[in-house]
Amino acid sequence: METVGRRSFIKSGTGLVMGLAGTTAVVPNTNAEARRTAGAGEDTTPLQLELRGNVLRFRAGWCEIPDWTLALEVDNELLSTKMASAKLVSQEPFQLEFKFSKHPLTWTIEAEPDDAANTVLLRSTIHNGSDKAVVLGKAFLLQTDSVGGFSRPGDALVYLPMTTGQGMKVVQKLNAGAATSEMAMEAFNQTQNKAFQAGFVTFQRAKSLVAHDSGPGKPLQLKAWCEFDGWELAPGTSTHTETLMVAVGENPHAQLEAWAEHAARLCHPRPREWEDSPNGWVGVSWVDPFYVEQDQATVLRNAKAVRERLPEFGIDYIWISIVNIKDNQPGYWLDWNYHNLPDGPQFFHAQLEELGFKWGLWCGAFMLSSRAPDKVKELKDALFKKPDGVEPMVYLPQWRYGPAGPSSEFKKPIYALDPSHPKTREFLRNVFFTYREWGVRYYMIDFLSAGADTLNAIPHAKHYDKKLVSGPEVYRTGLAMIREACGDDTHLLVATGPTIQAGGYMDSVRTGSDFGEGRPLNPLFDMYPGTFAINAPEHWTGPQNALANQAATYHMHRRLFICNSGNLLTVDKPLSLNQAQIHAAIHVMSGGPSMLGDDMTYIDEERLRLIKQTLPRPRNVAFPVDLFSKREQNYPRVYHRKITTEWGTFDVVAVYNLDADRVLEQDVDLKSLELDPSRHYHLWEFFNTEYVGKISGKLHAQVPPASVKIYRLTQDLGRPVIIGTDMHMLMGEMEVDRCDWNGAQQTLSGRATRPPQEKGSVYIYAPPKLVVANPKGYYLGHDARDNSLIIRCHLDFEEGSAEWNLKFVNL
């Protein structure tokens, strides 16, 4: 078995064979363990890439692509490699040249095996040997009418589109017709357990797409290309295309994780390791700072409340959104709104700094409101234009925030700045350098599709700097300027817009829509006349999108960036307790940072405790166990964390049920958790503070409507063990720092840490025929089912840590 990320899979090949028409170059698999574990009956056909005439033939394990062709758009003409002469330049490493007789172009193809991940990377370089520039369009690195061996009639086929942005990402039926994915697609045959992936692992210059077509009785057809969109390749020069990856195997999770590892390596993103997630407060869920309350007083009141009610819980940022800019209009970034924040940025910074906070701002960096006519005039040349090249492109037809009040129609449009224009870059440099001088160290950068050029679907004229390829390269030019001006100690969060292409410049990305957020009392928002949507998991601020996208992007977390599927944590009443628990569980299982959405001055004590149970935040994201288990589902239900500490290992499983009127009965095979189904495990449920009992083989979850259950599984060792806590939803990873069993003395001792003055409990199982020798201060529950003991150790954290020492004697 090999492990990629955290899930193991069987390797389907033992080497790589590449060559021309029977002349092969074999790259041996030197991994002895992989050879030993290639089981009987497993298809061990080595990976092969051969040239037959002018067509590539690919084979790996069960997979065969007999008609792999490539094509290149040059000067508006499509040139297929079938029309070119082919030459094997090198067998090891494999390198192939295509030359086109009609154009003095050379297209070099290089293949690189990654046997550990069971993949082949295809790199290519286009060289212009003529004395004039050529115009490049699409570069097709993979075209095939058949991915052979993947399916038979009647098989259950699904795929996950690996797309950028915050749209809903769910596993879908594969044989429902033609579709296009950004970056890559992950296909899975549920009937035969066959996984196939095709897509791009680089994406920083040219827009990349993968189109597939499949139907009943029809093989899987693919096209994968990157789009140069009319970019000119100068005479005598060369350019790389984006790098394609093809993966064949049995485990789609392993292929997703391998994709992310390759992308992180090849794109050189530099996500700084934020050991502690930048958690903070924004509080707009129940507070309307636009039309009801003055924001400065509200923010400072809440900042003091955070320090009083959540001391030493790691809430170190205060973020304000939109209210700091003149008339609340994008573009007026440095024009302070003295109506909402009357004492100015320096005062505001000083007040927060005194309370120990760093502060952050919202910024739609590439947006420019037509309600800021002086800025429009100043930056007119730097705006994206309509296809006529004259009038500004309309990015948004209206902006729903402003001084006119909630009854206004807000009909005036928002324009978009071209990141390739020097005026845009100078404007952004000045804005973010000034913000840095003000002490700003956190940003939610929003509506980034405004500056993403062809990564958005709005028709517009070409960008300014023709040296840059349309799309990702233009977009990343603007991100680079923001990153440089902000400084490396500033946390940058992508709110909406292209996510995957932001790797390296942005620290974290919102993987879903605005989960947990409220809106002002404005009739243009669908929450009106309220400020927060409840009882609607499918709402764009609800948990369904957050859960689906947490699952679909888990493999990118802390590889390309920190995935932020939690966004705002809002838990206060009138949100029901069950819904609040769902919100909190999503945050704690996300591995990412979040902002608190409640008014911390008035929050209910019960709900405040719920927030505490999510802190501190772990680094790792939960694994979506059932991501590929159904033909279609609007969100995966089961999320798993395998937790290893210095004192022991255990597993935590969250099972969600967003259905409002149906109990969820869910069996979770222990094999899917990488646990031995023949062993016994203690099962503890967090929210009900319940010892469910011993289980083996499977976990049977019963989750009431609109609820979540969080289970801890601890292997039965035949002696006393921790089975749960009530202090943190991960029940031991973040609060227990020591637990020791002394068999000779029959003593279980340990220590937990929490902020001073907190209280909590550790729960311990002791097998039958053991008695607690020092029972004072412990709560001893006799489980009548098997005569075991369930012991509550109450802990008082007067100075930040508390210990227990349980001595047992035989009955």
In CATH, the topology of the largest domain is named TIM Barrel
Number of strands: 49
From the 3D coordinates, which CATH architecture of the largest domain would you assign?
A: Alpha-Beta Barrel
N-C termini distance: 45 Å
* Percent helix range: 10-25%
How much is the radius of gyration in Å? 29 Å
What is the approximate shape? Answer: globular
Assign the structural class, choosing from mainly alpha, mainly beta, alpha/beta, alpha+beta, or little secondary structure: mainly beta
Mean pLDDT: 91
Number of domains: 3
CATH class of the largest domain: Alpha Beta
Question: DSSP strand (E) fraction?
Answer: 35-45%
SS field, number of helical segments: 10
Characterize the largest beta sheet: strand count, sense, and whether it forms a barrel: 10 strands, mixed
Q: Give unreliable regions as ranges.
A: 1-42
**CATH homology superfamily of the largest domain:** Aldolase class I
Structure write-up:
The structure is a single chain. This protein is mainly beta. It has three domains: 12-267, Beta-galactosidase, Chain A, domain 5; 279-453 and 470-612, TIM Barrel (Alpha-Beta Barrel), CATH 3.20.20; 637-810, Immunoglobulin-like (Sandwich), CATH 2.60.40. Helices cover 14% and strands 37% of the residues. The protein contains ten helices and 49 strands. Strands 3, 4, 5, 6, 7, 8, 13, 16, 19 and 20 form a ten-stranded mixed β-sheet that branches. The longest helix is centred in the first third of the chain and has 16 residues, at 252-267. The chain is globular and about 90 Å long.
